[in-house]
Amino acid sequence: MSLTPLLRKIFLVDLIKGLKVTFHYQSPSEAITEQYPLERPIVYERFRGQPRLNSNPDSGESLCIVCNLCALACPEQLIVVKGERNPATKRKEVVSWTYDLSRCMFCGLCAEACSTDALELTQDYEMALYSREGMILDQAALECGQEPVRYAK
Amino acid sequence: MLEAIKGYLSTNTTPGEAGSMFWATIYILIITIGISLAVICMNWLERKILAHMQIRLGPMRVGPHGLLQPFADALKLLIKEDIIPHDADKLVFWSAPVVVTMTSFTTFLVVPFGRTHAVTDLNIGILFMLGVSSLGVLGIIMAGWSSNSHYPLMGSLRSSAQMVSYEIAMGLAIVSAVLMTSLQTGTGTLSMIGIVDAQNAQQTWFIFKFFPLGLIAFGVFAIAMIAETNRAPFDLPEAESELVAGFHTEYSGFRWSLFFLAEYAAMLAVSSIAVTLWLGGWMRPFPNWLSGSAWNLAFSFVPALSLFVLAGMCLLGALRMPRIPQMRIQTVGLATFGSLLGFVGLVLLLPGVRERIQDIFWFVAKVAFFMYLYIWYRGTFPRYRFDQLMKVGWKVLLPTGLGVLIATAIWGLLPQLSTAILGVSQ
To answer: Averaged over B378-404, what is the pLDDT?
Structure first.
């Protein structure tokens, strides 16, 4: 029988090792807690959050061509797009566009299906609301982004 | 009036020795307030240090770095609904927290914070402390039994078993320290002040006496005292994951906070026993080796300097606060707290105060080290199983304590033994 395990037990080597680990963790730079409203977390590049309808930055026209691919791709069928052909430009234009955020699971299939990069899931993550009202977004809300709830005293 | 105060302050006696009821009352008041303040500080420090050990931040919102959190908690506890369970034994339920709190505060009667800074110097001081502090378990059993509920009863049963097993090891360790006091004078002492004086006379802390015997006895006591105060890793009576909260499950509000107060006061009490017995009590480091007026002066600046360091840390923290309007109040608060600490440090620089406060500072610093150890252990060690706890108590600590006691006695008698043997042989 070797003496080392006994000596390790007597001199509490394992306990001291543990104490060393916790002692080193005390440095404030080790803390990984984020002070949320003051410090904002950096989300990953491919994070899928608040949906947005993009418009052409030069002309301000909506990029959506009412192809209905997003509505077809959506597994929750929460996107409803209605459009009408404009006889002058011979292009389909949006009449109503709704996106039910309360049912969305942020799978991103709609944004993948979009043929013109009009629909996009952005990095915004502050989508909490007090009630389900206002969770069905129309075109205007989708284009400017949903207004986050401000908590104030 | 001022003359009377000055006259008393210039004498070197404890109030008990001087027979002054007035000063004894003042000392008791100061100690009670001091212990309560220490418990408040401990509450904050424990949460912060434990949080940092677990890579968290701990309380950050109530006051700068959560400094006001203990006060917020105390307020919350005071205005909480006071519940006595329907089937509880009302009288016992009511008196249990009182018993626990009273016993843990009474022990401080004999704790010497300095040569003159003790309420009284009982000649059986250490015995008194042990006796009174083990009465505390009675309160725990009362709480567990009177709640008329499963978890509290389990908790208090565990507590009583644990106390009985560890009191013995603790007592043996203490006896070996008391034996050491008799080495030069021939008569030992149980008085807390006498024990520190013996360490002064023998020019060594008892932890280094008869190396490694003093160290082993101290180690036995250091483990037993954690078990005595029901702290992690021996916190079986209040094992959160098994027994909800153990013996105080049914308590709420102010009664619960009394248990909390008592637990921390008991921790302070056993830590002061350890400091008095093995770490030289109120004595500053190296009182004999680094003696002389220059060293005395240098060491008398340490209390003020340490407060200045704390104040500096607060001010640095205030500078590093995020500069946004919401945090302005907190920044100002932290800066004010820092300057308050700095002011106290300045007061401690005054010659009269400096001389008077020194021994208290060293005692408190040593106790604070033990308090840190308590938190450190809690942040590191997982809880022992009950059979492991019993095994450590009866199979490891008890024989070790007994062996150390016998070895200390033999070592202490060696000079006399050798002369006796040599005398016979001649």
So the answer is: 89
